[in-house]
Design a protein that fits this description.
Blueprint: H1 2-25
Length: 26
């Protein structure tokens, strides 16, 4: 359960970072 939650948290952070990078590029 912890690993799943950690993975989901990482995916969430990655999505946010990707959005920030995309926003900066645009």
């Amino acid at each position: 359960m912890r690993i799943v939650s950690f993975t989901e948290a990482r995916n969430g952070l990655k999505a946010v970072l990707d959005n920030v990078i995309n926003d900066a590029d645009t």
